Amino acid sequence: MNRNTSILIGILLLLVAIAYLVMQKPGEQSSTGESGEYLVKVDSLAVDRIEIKSPTARLLLEKKGVEWFVQEPVSYRADQSNVASLIHESKNLEVKSIVSNKPSKQSVFQVDSMGTLVKMSAHGSEQAAFIIGKSGSSFAETYARRTTSNDVALVGGALSYTFNRPIKDWRDRTILAIPQERIKEVKFQYGDTTFVLAFEDSTWMVGKDSTQDWVVNTLLSSLSNFQADDFVDTLSSKPPKITAQISYGGAQLTFAYVKDGDKYLVQSSHSPQWFEVQTWRANQVLKRKKDLVKSGK
Length: 297
Hints:
The protein is of the alpha+beta class.
């Protein structure tokens, strides 16, 4: 090996070492530990109270019977699947390594007061308490710490969204849910204009006009589980101007178009709650007669 080759190899090794050091985040290689264990033990069937507290918000979930409800900051039925996902993620926080046991390093990983504190209780007794910190360098891992330990663990999963959802994502966004097979007639009213889509003799008709199967099927699917984009907990003193109403399955949806924001306010006859629905979603159900009947009718 000649002298020039040796110099080039030396430079290459030096660059590799520098690149490695640059890629490491300060304080994130303090120590190592055993992997394969779980951060906390959670009995998913027994948990009946969950508190999540971040620097900017606090959420309290409680189980009543078999269903979960948001208790704070509002009182409302919870999104059952999102709560189930939270519990599942909590009991499966597999420890990849212990990166630090120094209290002074907790702020580096945001597993101090800047993290998200999660407390789970069962029958009045705290079952687990831990802090979710920032994402790891791969963003497929997250730093976390049990509140009873100084050990900062690197656990699997990109967990920030699971534990830090906005409050609207913890609430059940269902405006109206009716099994599709129960829908045999849909009445549309736009001001003084009214028409009815009805199931007659094994086919859907609007009066004497035949309809487009794919349009009707898409409509019925949307109506059977109509979801909101957001919640409207406080209305202005002026009642919204009703744009349209759809009646089906013994219930009614009321729509009020809001030009500012290009959206609709929607209310179901089953609840006093008002919801916000983006125009594209509302248009899935706000069909005109010409949208439903076959071409040429």
